[in-house]
Design brief:
By secondary structure, this protein is an alpha+beta fold. It contains 11 helices and 11 strands. Among the domains are: about 60 residues, 2-Layer Sandwich (Phosphorylase Kinase, domain 1), CATH 3.30.200; about 120 residues, Up-down Bundle (Methane Monooxygenase Hydroxylase, Chain G, domain 1). β1 and β2 form a beta hairpin.
């Protein structure tokens, strides 16, 4: 996605390839429901939300300047806005045509199988690129942990598939990079390309998972978020599944980036640091393990 900024204080999003209309239609719908933390696209003169430019789709948005949640600390009032907005999103009833257009959670094993395949092939792979070589060593060193994560995610996915679940509208990728705090202190949730109908835990797993910056402890994040979101029963098995699955997907993405290409320049070393940090004490893997209450019951409430 390429964004071109115009002097009229609006911004164009230029998209090629597969174009998910719901990534434009749903933010507009949510904004129309009064969710101020969603930036709505602007209609064309004919009332459409995008237009064709040769092989591209062009979408016009208000120009918003700010920093993401990795760059600036979310203050208590931002967490309150976050909780209120996410509760509103999860509670929104969609028109049938929009609901039918959204993908639904299937608990796919796509990334788990991909990671298992990579680990099985690592012994036969050779790398000239230093970052790729370091990545391979890191994966081999932590192979037992990674396979355990995959196995736990698989077990919890099978349990989820066997029970009736309530699906709601989920952003599905609310990490700190998709939180925007503007220069005038306004809070937004951005980047709606991952929309999904899924259990609410698909979004709630980010609260306290180590994915919203390193400003607060997991307990502090929950204490800031849930009073605004409201008391709700959390399926701890689903929460653990989504945290495991997110780590597995990240490992898969880093493998694709670092083992199979040499693209990215200096960003490659940074990506390796991100991957390595996952295995540190009190980081994402440790937090995911701590949230797995499989042996002691699956329900609690905040």
């Amino acid at each position: 996605m390429l964004k071109l900024f115009a002097p009229c204080l609006n911004s164009f999003s230029i998209r090629s390839g597969d174009f998910a209309e719901t990534a434009v239609l749903l933010p507009k719908f949510l904004s129309d429901q009064g969710i101020q933390q969603v930036i709505a696209p602007l209609p064309t003169k004919t009332g459409e939300l995008w237009t064709n430019l040769d092989r591209f789709k062009a979408v016009l948005y208000p120009f918003v300047t700010g920093q993401d949640g990795y760059e600036v600390k979310m203050q208590p009032h931002h967490w309150a806005a976050f909780g209120i907005a996410l509760k509103h999103i999860h509670s929104t009833a969609l028109p049938p045509t929009l609901a039918q257009a959204l993908p639904q959670e299937t608990f796919t094993d796509r990334w788990r199988e991909f990671v298992k395949t990579i680990l099985a092939q690592l012994g036969e792979m050779q790398f000239d690129d230093p970052v790729a070589g370091e990545t391979a060593v890191l994966l081999k060193t932590n192979q037992a942990v990674i396979l355990d994560l995959v196995d736990r995610a698989e077990r919890l996915a099978q349990a989820a598939q066997a029970q009736p679940l309530e699906f709601v509208v989920c952003h599905a990728d609310i990490h700190a990079g998709n939180i925007l705090i503007t220069l005038d202190d306004t809070f937004y949730i951005v980047d709606w390309d991952t929309l999904l109908l899924a259990p609410k835990e698909r979004d709630l797993m980010y609260i306290g998972a180590g994915l919203l910056g390193n400003w607060y402890s997991p307990q502090e994040e929950a204490a800031l978020f849930y009073p605004a979101y409201g008391q709700t029963a959390i399926d701890q098995n689903l929460l653990a599944y989504y945290r495991y699955e997110r780590i597995v997907q990240d490992i898969a993405a880093f493998c694709e980036q670092l083992l199979f290409t040499q693209e990215g320049g200096a960003d490659r070393a940074q990506s390796l640091r991100y991957l390595r940090s996952s295995f540190l004490p009190n980081h994402t893997i440790a937090i995911a393990y701590q949230s797995d209450k499989t042996q002691s019951g699956c329900w609690s409430s905040f």
